[in-house]
Each structure stands twice: as structure tokens, then as C-alpha cells.
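Dear support,

I submitted the protein below through the web form. The confirmation email said the job was done, but the results page showed an empty box. After a refresh the structure appeared. I'm attaching both so you can tell me whether what I see now is the final result or a partial one.
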Amino acid sequence: MRKRMIPVCIPLLGEKELEYVTDCIKTNWISSKGKYVEEFEEKFAKYCGCKYGITTTSGTTALHLALASINTKKGDEVIMPASTMIATAFAVIYCGAKPVLVDAEPETWNIDVEKIEEKITNKTKAIMPVHIYGHPCDMDPIMKITEEHELYVIEDAAEAHGAEYKGKKTGGIGDIGCFSFYANKIITTGEGGMVVTNDEEIADRAKSLRNLCFPKEKRVYLHSEVGYNYRMTNIQAAIGLAQFERIDELAEMRRRNAHLYNKYLKSVKGITLPIEKEWAKNVYWMYSILIEDEFGMSRDELMNELEKRGIETRTFFISMHEQPVFWEMGLFEGESYPVAEELARTGMYLPSSSGLKEEEIKFICDVIKEIKELVKCTKT
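What the results page shows now:
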């Protein structure tokens, strides 16, 4: 058995991060004011093709801030994929609105664009596509639908830093883009997030809500509406800026990981590998696979065997309509999303750190093949 665990994902930090953080400490600029916050916002927004960037405390608060900035409220509906991280739905709930689910499509595992329009009602406020595991959604049909119905598009690009749809960066295609900078993301600030947009009114609204809705004119303690304390610190932004300065390199490392995994696993029957559509640049935030019946054991059984051998893995997200917290709210009763359910049953991701070495990837793949062979031998 392997003694050292290969983690599912850890950040890749360097000297520049230490230099910038040290500068924050030496100059005493450690809270939400400071040059690194502004520079990080400006450069990351521009990278996405946007004029404005608003840093936040997390990807979840970025989503909430985006929804609040377009005045999402009780009685509104927001269309989103059934298969996603629960924060996407929570952000809608925070606004008092109702998440409306659409099944995944089986190739990219993103929202099935052909099933969106049937979910639109006179209560629909926005569509929130999620670029799941780093592969972009098919955005043109989504943009066409929203133009016809005069809806907002809020991209959940938490897992898709640097991913592209027809040459455009994710997050910069819809009205608003939201990112997470959690420690396992392609670039990180430890905890943190960002809203990006080209709409000045939305940007101003987001900045105000993020900062407790202080008056614009001067900092007086007189507030006319409820705001939030979602401010990123200068220290976090310093790490983020250093990470951003090599964002393309870090994204390319994830793509390299995926190409190596594909090379070593392509001949293994019973495993469905991730794809990259011809119109997409997949950044493979996590190298994600499906374990089909032909493999010879279940996804969960394989994960247990890998853990015994020092390889950490994770399951896919459980679909929103299968979450007990939403049953308690009376949501999604009697609803079924077969593709999302199957993804939750069979999907897992393998170690995906940017700094993963080829010998580690080969070891992981060899162990998977070895386990499959052992299963085959015990059944014959």
C-alpha cells in the first residue's frame, strides 16, 4: 500500500505570492482597502473581456451578489442545472427566489440547452448556466433564449477560469460572470470570489451591496437598504494577483493532466472520459470520469480501493432535486432528472492538482487498471 496520499487537489503557490503578501504586512494594508484588491479586480475582469470586477469573500457570495444586483426577489425564478454544486441553488434561495431545474446533457454534463425554454414562465428572472468541471456550456442558444425573453444570464464560472467558448472567455459572455477562488480552483486566494460584468449599473450596485450599502458621497453610518459584508482582503487579493499572473500556465497544467489521463485510461473499458467540444476550451478543473457497469465494480467501490492505495478522489455533485434541505422547503417534489441522477451515481474525479507529476498520473492509472484486473479475475 502507498503511504503518502495523493490529494485530490491542492494549490500551487510560489515566491510571488509570498512577496505580495509580505508587502501587505509590511505596509499595514491587510483589510479590504489596498492596491492589490483594485489591481486584481481590474486585471481579472479584463482577462474575461469585462470592464468591471468586484471581488467577494467566496464564489457563493459572488453568485448571491450577482443575483441581488439585478434585484432578484421573492416570487422570481432562476433557471439552473440540476447537476451542480449546491451553492448555485443556495444563492437563489438567499434572495427569496425559486431555483428551477433543468437536466444535464450527457456529453459535457452541463445544462441541457434544449430543455431550458420549456421551464421559462412569467416569473423567470435569469438563467444561470454552470460551466461544470471546467467545460463551457453551449452559450449561443442560451443567449438567444434570454434575448427573446428579456432575461439575464449569470454565468457560474466558479470552476472554469480561462475556459473558452468559441474563443470567448467564460464569465464574460453573459450579463454577469461569477468566479470562486477557493483553494482547489485553478487560481486561488484561499477563500474568495469575483463578479465580472460590462454593465456599469450592475457593477455599481454590486459594489454598494458588497460594502454594506454605505452612501457613495462619504463614509457616514447612514444606510437606506440592507447590504452585505462580502469584501475581499488585500492579503487575499495579493495572493490572487500573483496567481493571476500565471493563470494561463496553471490552466494549461490542468489541460496537460487531462491529456495524460486520457492517454493512460483510453483503453480501459467501463470508464467514460471527459470530452472537449470543438467549440470549447476545457480547462479540466477536475479530471472527471464516469464508472459504468462494464468496469466490474461500482464507483463507490473503486473509490474505496483507490483510497486504500493512497489515492484521494471525490464523487460528482448530488443533483439539487435529491438534496434533503430542499425537500424540507417543498422544492422539486416529484421531479426527475435522469442524466443528473446517473452522473451523481457514476461520476468521480481523480487527483487534479496543477502541480501533479506525470509519474503520479501514471501510477493512478496503473492502479485503476490493476483494480479492474483483480475484479475480473475474481469473477472468472
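Response: this is the final, complete result; the empty box was a page-load delay. The longest strand covers residues 52-56.
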